[in-house]
Design brief:
The chain has 450 residues and is α/β, with parallel strands linked by helices. It has helices spanning 7-11, 18-30, 57-60, 80-93, 111-122, 137-145, 160-171, 185-206, 225-232, 248-251, 284-296, 298-305, 309-315, 321-337, 357-367, 372-383, 395-410, 417-422, 426-449; strands spanning 52-55, 65-70, 103-107, 126-132, 149-153, 176-178, 209-216, 237-243, 278-282, 343-349, 390-392. It has 19 helices and eleven strands.
Length: 450
Amino acid sequence: MYFGPTFAEMRDPSRIPQATRDKALAAFEGSPLDPINLYNITWKDAQNRVRFVELPSALTGVDARIVVLSGRRFPTGSHKVGAVYSILVEKQLAAEVMPGEHTLVCPSTGNYGIGGAWVGPRMGYRSLVVLPEQMSAERFERIKSYGAEVIKTPGCESNVKEIFDKVWELRLEPQNRILEQFSEFGNYRFHWAVTGGTVVDLAAELGGHVAAFVSAMGSAGTIAAADRIKQTHPDALSVGLEPIQCPTLYNVGFGAHRIEGIGDKHVTWIHNVMSMDYLFCIDDLECLKGLQLLQEGGAILVDGLGLTPAFVESIHGMFGISGVCNVLGAIKTAKVGRFGKRDLIFTVATDGFDRYPSVLKKLDSEMGPMGRDDALRRIEIFHGAKLDYVLEGTPHVRERWHNQKYFTWVEQQAKTVEALRAQSDMSFWIAEQSKAADIDREILSRRMAC
C-alpha cells in the first residue's frame, strides 16, 4: 500500500526527504505517470517558492493587490489532485480501501475527476470517473490518458444531482468505493492546511494587509483556505463566488452555466458557510470573454493597457474559466471593501488553459472570432466589474446557507439532522482541522513501516 506526502510536506516541500524530493522533481517532466509525482502535490516550485502572479492595477482597474496562486503545475495541471489524494490517503489509513481490491468512483464535473483518474492508478487502484456529458472535450481526453474509465451523466456543470443518482447505483457493486469531494473532509483539510497555509506563507513574504481570500465554490474545498487564513489574519474576509446563471446561495436559485468547476446547484457538506463573509455572483459569459482576452489578446494587453510583454507572456496559459471568475470576484471584493494599495486579496487559478481550447472554439462559433475592437471592449470586463449580486454573510444569511444543506444531504444523501446541526458550531470545524496533524503522524508511521 502506497503512502505519499503529509499535509505539512505538501505545504512545505522542503520537509520531504531530499532524495525523495529530487526524484519527484526529476519525474515531473520526464515521467509524469510515476507515483513519485505524488510528492509534487504542492503550490511551491523546486526552490520552495509559491507559484503566483500579482496582477497589475492596469489590468484589474483597482488599487488593491490581487494575488493569484497558480494551480497548473500540480501533477494533473490542477490543484484538485491534492483533494483526491488527501481523501484517498485518509481512507487508506482507516482501512476503508485496499489497492487491487477496490475500484475508486470519483463523481466530478471535471478537475476532481481528472485528479481521481491520475491518483487512483498511481496508488494501485482502478478509477471510474462520473462526469456530465457536456464538459469540455479536453477533460474526457485527459481522464482517459491517465488510464481511468468514464461514465457520462446528463447535463452540464450544474447537473450534480444526476451524478449523485448514478453514484447511488454504483454503490451497490461491492468492489466500488466512493471518493466524493462534496462531503469528504479530506478535501476540506487539504485546502485548510495546504492552500490556506501557503497563502499565509506568501502573505508574510509580500507584506501588507491581508484583506480577503476569494474563491468560487464547486465542492467548496478551496474556500476552506479562508478558515486557515483567518486564524492568522482575523479580519480577512472569506468571499465565495457562484454564477449569476445558477445563484444557489444567493437566492436559492438554479440553472445551467458554463463556468466549469463551480456552481453545482447545492450547498456542499464540507462548506463552512458559518465563516463566509460575502457571496458574489459572476456572469459566465464575462468569464469566457475575459479568458479569451487573457489568452489571445496579448497585443491589446500590451498596447491598450501598457502591460509589459514579459508579464503578458507569464500569464499566457495560466487561466481557465474558473480562474477568470476568481479574478473578477477579487476585483469585486476590492470595490465592495474599498481596499487600497496596502491591501492583499488572494485567490487561485485552479487550472490552466490547456483544458479549454474547445470551449473558446465554441465561443467563436457563437459570437465570431475576437477582433481588435472586441478585445478593447473586453477590457471593461475587468475595469468595469459590477457591484450587483452582492450578499453579505449576516448571521441570518449564514443560517439560511446552513439550512440549505438539508435538502441535498439529509433528504437525498443519508446524512442525519444531528450531523447537520453540529456543523453550525465552529468547534465542529476546529475539530476537523485538528485531525490534520494526527493524519500526518500516521502517514509518516506507515511510510516508515513500508
